[in-house]
Structure formats: structure tokens, C-alpha cells
Write a sequence for this structure.
């Protein structure tokens, strides 16, 4: 950590250039010869990333950033705040502290918080930043988290872990055993220090695969931000062996869409031809796989087993996009030529043999406008097109 970056002159320079293209600044001569120019530029680039993702850090003076990539990879404040709502108690230890965004919010929920970070420079950065953020109940330790946990030898209410994939992990298959720390291997060790464990994983992790590696899973939270799944949260409780709750959450500017169900429920969907309204589940529900639960919880019916679109005659509050069907027709040459060819429309395919790109090219349909088209398959296995107006 280059402390010269925290000088008043350099901090003023960073702030005054926050809206300037860093690649253009890089062509300029270093205005501060005693400090590294690349480091200063990196601070500007990282702070630019933080403006929307980490507004608290962005608005706080003398924050030191570890680099643009670290800021890109860290939790957003919105998802960090969501995680904090899931914990309570006196003490929490974060075994993979990183930039400390999650811990900033955890610190509001517990009396004592321990931040472990294997990278000593990042640990030093976080220790500096928590002083600027006026956190009084958080302590930073640099080193191997398992060694720190054993050395502290305390009971915690919660252990939090955000394991990172090893660089040498082969292929696209994402398994927890391929991450650092190796959580499946260390679970018994962790449960010796806490009864509750929260594990954050990337959304690429398959839920079934995660369950095959973990034990004592009590709940899985699928967290999306503005309809983009950002993380899976695995809640483990020592000796827990009952049913697993799946919680889907889509955090938006205006509201929080939540949908909860028990994993393994023998739910069966009700089916129907398209009615007046059509519903598309949000990304968190799509990731959860709880498609058959939807017709049990909401007064809707499914268009087809594999379409994952739902319909009703009465408008309902639904966790996802909502449309009013203005026209429904069979997908064929005649109908496409008379209704959509050379028009402008937003296109989505669900359980349909052609891609969006192919449909646009084939029928010369431009992107955009106020018409929303679903190319899908109905309950009778007919290929159909729904022309809709968006309500939500």
C-alpha cells in the first residue's frame, strides 16, 4: 500500500479527475514524481467503478482502492446489505474478507467482527479504510484463515466464507472442492468454532452440485440485482438435516421481489393455453429451478412444461416481468409476413427451436420499440408467437 497516494494533493487530483477517461490521463506526464503514476491512475479507475456499486466508499474521503478488478469482483452494497439481514448474534468471522464490503454491513448486525485476508496488502488497505468509515467493532488479521481461526480459538455465532476458484481449476465445471479455501474438506473444522455458516458462491455453481458437496444446508438464497443473478448464499447449521428452503430475491430500484419454496416438494404445474396476461419469472427464480412451485403459489397456469412462461385472465402481482397479450398466433410463414415482417419488436424465445438472431434475420425484424414478442411452445406443442405490451 503506497501511503503517498493519501496525500491531500493526490486525493484532490483523483477526485477532480473522476469523470476523465483514464486512458487519456495515462498519456500525461506524472504530476507527482514522488508517487507511482500507474497507481494513481488505478485509484481513479477503481473509484469510477465504485461510484454506482459502492456509493458509501465513493463518498468517503481518503479511501484507498486495491484495484479496478478487486472492485469489480467485490459484492455490491445492495447485495452486502441483503446478506447482513440473514445474520444476528454477537460475533462473526469472515474467513475471506477481501475488500470488506460484506463486513461493513455485517458490522451493523453483530458486536464483534473479524476480517481475515490472506493478502497482507489488501488486509492493510481494509484496516485503513475501516478507520475512514468509522467502524469500531472490526479487527483485521492477515494470513491463512484456518490458522487465524485456530489461533483465536473462540466461538463465533457465524462464519462467513466467499471461496475463490483456484487458477489451475480445469474446465468450466465449478465445484467447491476446486476453490480456496476447500470448504467441503474444512466443514467439520469450521463447525468446531460456529454453529452457523454462510457461504457465498458465484451463480455459475449448479445448485445440485453444491448440495452434493455440502452437508447441513438449511437454506439457499439466490440473489439477483436488477434481474441479474449475482450470487448464491448457502446457509448451513450444525447438525441440521430437515428440508431445505430456497429463497429467490431480485433486488430492484423500486422493490424487492421474493419467492420462497421448499426444495424437493412434489409440486405439479397446472397448464393452459395463453390467456389475457403472460408472466416471465425473474432471473433468480429461473436459476432456482422452482418452476413447478409457481402455479402452486400464484393464480397462474403454465404454457408448457419447458417454456417457463405463465398466464392468467386476472392480473396479479408477480415476481418477474408482466405483459398483456395483444395477439397470439401460430408461428408460420403467412402469419409472420402479415404481422411481424419488417417491423420493430423486442424478441424473447422460450422453448423454441430458433434463436432470436435467426428470427430477426429471417423476418427482417428490427430491435426495440414497445412491442414485446415471445416465441414459444404451447401446451399442445404448437409453436406460437405472443405479441404483448409490457406492464412491468
Amino acid at each position: 500500500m503506497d501511503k503517498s497516494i493519501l496525500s491531500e494533493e493526490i486525493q484532490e487530483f483523483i477526485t477532480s479527475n473522476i469523470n476523465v477517461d483514464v486512458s487519456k490521463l495515462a498519456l500525461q506526464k506524472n504530476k507527482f514524481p514522488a508517487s507511482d503514476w500507474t497507481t494513481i491512475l488505478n485509484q481513479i479507475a477503481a473509484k469510477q467503478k465504485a461510484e454506482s456499486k459502492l456509493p458509501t466508499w465513493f463518498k468517503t474521503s481518503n479511501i484507498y482502492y486495491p484495484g479496478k478488478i478487486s472492485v469489480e469482483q467485490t459484492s455490491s452494497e445492495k447485495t452486502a446489505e441483503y446478506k447482513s439481514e440473514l445474520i444476528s448474534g454477537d460475533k462473526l468471522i469472515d474467513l475471506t474478507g477481501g475488500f470488506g464490503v460484506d463486513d461493513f454491513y455485517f458490522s451493523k448486525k453483530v458486536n464483534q467482527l473479524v476480517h481475515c485476508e490472506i493478502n497482507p496488502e489488501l488486509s492493510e488497505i481494509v484496516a485503513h479504510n475501516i478507520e475512514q468509515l468509522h467502524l469500531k467493532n472490526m479487527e483485521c488479521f492477515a494470513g491463512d484463515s484456518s490458522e487465524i481461526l485456530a489461533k483465536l480459538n473462540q466461538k463465533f455465532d457465524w462464519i462467513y466464507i466467499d471461496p475463490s476458484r483456484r487458477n489451475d481449476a480445469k474446465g468450466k465445471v465449478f465445484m467447491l472442492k476446486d476453490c480456496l479455501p476447500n470448504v467441503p474438506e474444512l466443514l467439520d473444522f469450521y463447525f468446531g468454532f460456529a454453529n452457523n455458516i454462510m457461504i457465498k458462491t458465484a451463480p455459475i455453481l449448479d445448485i445440485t452440485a453444491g448440495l452434493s458437496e455440502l452437508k447441513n444446508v438449511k437454506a439457499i438464497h439466490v440473489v439477483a440485482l436488477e434481474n441479474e443473478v449475482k450470487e448464491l448464499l448457502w446457509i448451513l447449521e450444525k447438525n441440521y438435516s430437515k428440508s431445505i428452503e430456497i429463497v429467490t430475491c431480485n433486488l430492484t430500484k423500486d422493490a424487492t421481489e421474493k419467492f420462497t419454496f421448499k426444495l424437493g416438494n412434489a409440486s405439479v404445474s397446472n397448464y393452459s393455453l395463453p390467456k389475457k396476461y403472460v408472466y416471465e419469472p425473474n432471473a433468480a427464480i429461473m436459476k432456482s429451478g422452482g418452476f413447478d412451485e409457481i402455479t402452486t403459489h400464484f393464480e397462474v397456469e403454465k404454457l408448457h412444461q419447458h417454456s417457463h412462461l405463465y398466464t392468467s385472465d386476472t392480473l396479479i402481482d408477480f415476481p418477474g416481468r408482466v405483459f398483456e397479450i395483444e395477439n397470439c398466433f401460430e408461428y408460420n410463414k403467412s402469419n409472420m409476413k402479415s404481422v411481424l415482417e419488417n417491423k420493430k419488436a423486442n424478441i424473447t424465445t422460450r422453448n423454441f427451436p430458433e434463436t432470436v438472431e435467426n428470427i430477426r434475420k429471417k423476418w427482417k425484424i428490427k430491435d426495440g420499440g414497445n412491442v414485446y414478442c415471445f416465441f414459444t411452445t404451447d401446451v399442445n406443442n404448437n409453436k406460437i408467437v405472443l405479441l404483448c405490451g409490457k406492464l412491468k
